[in-house]
Amino acid sequence: MSEERPARGTRTGFTTGACSAAAARAATLGLVQGAVPAQVECQLPNGQTHCFAVHDGRCQGPQAHAMVIKDAGDDPDCTDKAHLTADVELLPEQPGVVLLAGGVGVGVVTMPGLGLEVGKHAINPMPRRNIEANVRAAAGSLLEHAGLRVTISVPQGPEMAKKTTNARLGILGGISILGTTGIVKPYSTAAYRTSVVQGVHVAGTLAHSTVVLTTGGRTEAFVMREFPDLPEAAFVQMGDFLRYALGAAVKAGIRHVVIGGMVGKLSKIAQGETITHAGRADVNTGLLADLAAELGAPPDVCDDIRAAKTARYAGDRMAGVGLGLAFHTALAQRVVQVLRQRYEDAFTLRVLVCDFDGNKITEASS
């Protein structure tokens, strides 16, 4: 009996970048008007506007402080309820200048490959532009006489960062200020895809020029045991996004690609799928039956595999007739063959297969 999944919500939320921009705009208005407003209209990177509630607003001489609490909507985001805080300070000697800095809880970049300057805080380019645009819009003529320093901080950032992949990417001490549109969509595949590409680019900066791609936590634990000498940054959970992971590997000039997987996802890749989500395409059990036949499996076994719905059944059925190792090896070799045709000599390729307990079955390589 299949388990029923709880219904996923559809309520959108806002990125750390959008909330930071709103806090910065509110604090800037505090300097202009003498009091920080209780709510603020903020321009999002996608051109929309949204009214954000403002907390802890206060002004003291040439400085103003404001905070916006992130609402991630129905997305299971570990930064939900983060306190995106902006401190804006007048710079009397630098009219027209807007300087943006990171404070406590905003991670510091320690590795190349992210498109961010090493040693600086992890405020991505789009949020950076959006924060500055909102500050300039709020400051108006104030900038004719003074500049502004904007410091974004997140008090809970260090703890929240422990639930992200930031440390693996070399972003230490806090979360990142992110968001290309300002909107968080629940269970966003775009956000996950972006994180995969980002992870591969970071792996590409490492001296060994190797990225190890896995489909989830069990397969990652498996390949980490197989490659104990590789740094954590070399391992990327690509999920269903093989196409984007390999495209990023080519772009980063990575010389060695390792794929760790189980029979289901590997079967999808073997049939030419590079987006392996269950909703995109069914497993081609006919292909698996043909592999079984090539290995000398009895006709009734091949027929059963062809009529089945899952790749796991094929593996179990072949194991039952003493051909489990040969079957999984042939499958791994087919994956290598298919990807080699598509990517030719862009990188060396090694495919490792594990069972559902995370134990190694076999491997193949080019």
Structural description of this entry:
This protein is 36% helix and 22% strand. The chain is α/β, with parallel strands linked by helices. The chain has 2 domains: 13-184, CbiD-like (2-Layer Sandwich), CATH 3.30.2110.10; 189-365, no CATH class. It has a 5-stranded mixed β-sheet with strand order 4-5-6-9-7, covered by helices on one side. A 5-stranded mixed β-sheet has the order 13-12-14-15-16, with helices on both faces. It starts with 12 loop residues before the first strand and ends with a strand. 43% of the residues are buried. Mean pLDDT is 93; it is low at 1-7.
Q: What is the SS-derived class?
A: alpha/beta
Spatial extent as radius of gyration: 25 Å
Q: Biggest β-sheet, characterized?
A: 5 strands, mixed
**Number of helices in the DSSP assignment:** 11
Spans where pLDDT lies below 50 across 5 or more residues: 1-7
What is the strand tally? 16
Topology:
Blueprint: E1 13-14, H1 16-33, E2 39-43, E3 49-53, E4 55-60, E5 63-69, E6 83-91, E7 98-102, E8 108-109, H2 125-139, E9 147-153, H3 157-161, E10 171-172, E11 183-184, H4 189-203, E12 210-214, H5 217-226, E13 235-237, H6 242-252, E14 256-261, H7 263-270, H8 285-294, H9 299-307, H10 311-320, H11 324-343, E15 348-354, E16 360-365
Parallel strand pairs: 7-9, 12-13, 12-14, 14-15
Antiparallel strand pairs: 1-11, 2-3, 4-5, 5-6, 6-9, 8-10, 15-16
